[in-house]
């Protein structure tokens, strides 16, 4: 059986937030989900797994989402990986800055609205 499962990388240092998002994603579709807890792990994971979509927390230890996104964009030669920033609620400036700094979209946490997660996924991966 050949697999056409889309691969999603979730980068988030907070375990509860990471689990909530992964839970939502598993309910949306049959994705292969890879997890990372900081930017350094994320960069390694992108090399190893070539995800189709990345959800990127901005505030993380070791390497934050801003620096990680910059490095991903600097590395890219051809295809551009869609990155959805995970922003803290009420941080409207983060949302604007995320787009200005190379992210394609943003998702405010805590991620309680499953339909919003689905909309973000479908924007970049097509109908689920
Ligand atoms: Mg964080």
Description:
This protein is of the alpha/beta class and 128 residues long. It has a single domain, classed as Response regulator (Rossmann fold), CATH 3.40.50. The chain contains 5 helices and 5 strands. Helix 4 links the parallel strand 4 and strand 5. Helix 1 packs across helix 5. The protein is globular, with a radius of gyration of 13 Å. The protein starts with 6 loop residues before the first strand and ends with a helix. The relative contact order is 0.18. The mean pLDDT is 92. The chain binds magnesium ion (MG).
Q: Assign a percent range to the helix content.
A: 40-55%
CATH architectural group? 3-Layer(aba) Sandwich
Mean pLDDT metric: 92
CATH class: Alpha Beta
Across the major sheet, the strand order is: 2-1-3-4-5
What order do the SSEs take from the amino end to the carboxyl end, as H and E?
EHEHEHEHEH
Tell me how many strands there are.
5
Q: Beta-sheet strand percentage?
A: 15-25%
Radius of gyration, Cα only, in angstroms? Answer: 13 Å
Helical run tally? 5
Q: Give the overall silhouette.
A: globular
The helix-and-strand class reads alpha/beta
| Largest pleated sheet | 5 strands, parallel
């Amino acid at each position: 059986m050949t697999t056409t499962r889309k691969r999603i990388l979730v980068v988030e240092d907070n375990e509860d937030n990471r689990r909530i998002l992964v839970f939502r994603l598993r309910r949306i579709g049959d994705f292969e989900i890879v997890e990372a807890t900081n930017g350094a792990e994320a960069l390694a994971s992108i090399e190893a797994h070539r995800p189709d979509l990345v959800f990127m927390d901005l505030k993380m230890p070791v390497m934050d989402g801003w620096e990680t996104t910059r490095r991903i964009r600097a590395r890219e030669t051809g295809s551009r990986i869609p990155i959805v920033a995970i922003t803290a609620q009420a941080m409207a400036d983060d949302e604007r800055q995320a787009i200005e700094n190379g992210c394609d979209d943003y998702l405010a946490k805590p991620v309680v609205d499953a339909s919003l997660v689905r909309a973000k996924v479908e924007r970049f991966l097509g109908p689920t």
